[in-house]
Design a protein that fits this description.
Shape: globular
Distance between the termini: 30 Å
Number of domains: 1
CATH topology: TIM Barrel
CATH superfamily: Glycoside hydrolase/deacetylase
Radius of gyration: 17 Å
CATH architecture: Alpha-Beta Barrel
Largest sheet: 9 strands, parallel
Number of helices: 9
Length: 258
């Protein structure tokens, strides 16, 4: 198992290294067949829910909160199962009230460059299995050009891709990623803004429709029981719906496909 994981990690690292060199944006690529990626955020705080999320079938990816009680263990379990792990990076929100939910390791606008990069480095070390990063909250920082350039500079050095959760319409992440030649993806659908299985199913159906229209689509959800129930029902029958599930690293890697 560990040899297989080593080979897989090496393959992803090679893909990301090549993409960093050519500096292209993965979200603009149309895949040969409709494909979806699903990322489960906020992993690391709810032990039983996290385990059920990791038990989902197929190439679901997991975004792990740094310094969370179970984050490192969950990241290891996901990696051992051949799943892609991302660092779920806490970033300051515009709404002051929401910032109490950032958790440790948050990137703040008041930080200078040295503080910002040191915090980012510590967060990356806290989730050593991560080969990608997406933002936790971050509606304020995502719109700050200088801070997003600092972020992308380190991600380029680490050969890590960036998935923009798009928590704000002001995000400059795509521009910063392009400038710094960081492989870039963006979220298309939030599955579970409402914790209602009927509404989550509607969002999943929207994800399928977007993939069929654009060639690919990415959804973000959380390890809520309602979300896990909907995914467990749907992931086993994707073939009948004419789409395939791939992980975000392979979504990025599709750029290298002729």
């Amino acid at each position: 198992m560990f040899e297989q994981l080593r080979r897989q990690t090496a393959r992803y690292s090679l893909i990301l290294s090549c993409l960093c060199c050519i500096g292209v944006a993965a979200a603009d690529t149309i895949l040969p067949l409709p494909a979806i990626s699903i990322v489960i955020d906020d992993i690391g705080y709810r032990h039983s829910e996290d385990l059920r999320a990791i038990a989902l079938p197929g190439q679901v990816a997991y975004a792990v909160m740094p310094h969370s009680p179970y984050g490192r263990r969950m990241a290891r379990l996901a990696s051992a199962a051949g799943r892609v792990v991302l660092l779920h990076l806490p970033m300051q929100a515009e709404d002051f009230g929401k910032n109490r939910m950032l958790g440790p390791g948050a990137l703040l606008r008041t930080m200078n460059r040295e503080q910002f990069l040191e915090t980012l480095e510590i967060n990356l070390r806290a989730v050593p299995d991560a080969i990608g990063v997406n933002n936790h909250m971050g509606s304020l920082i995502s719109g700050e050009a200088e801070q997003m350039r600092w972020l992308m500079e380190m991600l380029y050095d680490k050969k890590v891709f960036y998935l923009d959760s798009l928590t704000t319409g002001r995000s400059v992440a795509r521009v910063a990623a392009s400038e710094k030649r960081v492989p870039f993806l963006k979220r298309d659908v939030f599955l579970d803004n409402e914790r209602d299985e009927r509404l989550i199913q509607l969002q999943f159906d929207k994800l399928i429709d977007m993939a069929k229209t654009h060639g690919r689509a990415i959804a973000i959800g959380h390890p809520h029981p309602e979300t896990i129930a909907v995914l467990a029902r749907n992931l086993a029958r994707l073939d009948s719906r004419g789409v395939r599930l791939i992980n975000p690293a392979d979504m990025v890697g599709a750029l290298l496909t002729p």
